[in-house]
Amino acid sequence: MKKILLSILALLLMFPLSAFADGENQEVIDEKLGVPIVVYGANLTAEQKVSVQQALKVSESATVEEIEVTGQDLATYIKDGNPSARMFSSAKITRTEEGEGLVISIVTPDNITQVTNDMYANAMLTAGIENATVEVAAPSPVTGHSALVGIYKAYEATGEQLDAERTDVANEELSVATILSEESGVDQEKVSELLTEIKKQIAEQNPASREDVEQIVSDQLSRLQIELSEQDRQLLIDLMDRIRQLDIDFSKWSTELEDLSKTIEDKIGTIVNDEGFWESVKQFFRDLANTVRGWFN
Fold it and tell me: What is the pTM of this model?
């Protein structure tokens, strides 16, 4: 009998402990900000969708809301957007507390070929998105532009409302950024730095005319030692003049841009001070010289 009582007592002691442990492992749902929202490109195959879910770690959490982004959404958020466009880029967006800013992560960097974290961040600030953690993924190589539309849709699914003019300008900003990096040969980080610094000056100076914007653009191009063709320079001025005319609280925007600017400067500084990077550059030229000498031997 004594052994039976001891066994029962042991079971009673174990039960609440195991119940506590189970509760401890449960994910806490943020009732104020809501659950993360995952938006999938509508043209993903079933296999591709599984790949994206794994990249975004969706399978590890049941507490997410899942939606799709279509070509029709592209036409909704972007003027002259093609409603028949095929959408593959996907994203997960998690709202964060006021003041935490934007944290962007491309979790499949080999498959997002033209857009960087900072390009996304810049465009999202222009669109009016703030205080969120955003992860972007694609199952195969894509430019990454459609992810921005998915982010818009996911952000509005949290209860926020975005201004149509701002989302259209943000899309133009992403297009100009990729043109400058892909066609003009400007380093991607340098493009992000340029866009951020021009927008900071617009926020601080509150230019009254296109001519004022043109002067700001010229000053920043000179300061950052970036040379553009006249055509690309005009593209940049056109974009920044549209930004000047947006309904934005520039005093608040200036602080957000300052944070983004610091992030970009830190990244560029890391590259400049990376001895391994420069050693690889030297080795490349040494190998090139040896190859050229070999042609004549």
Answer: 0.73
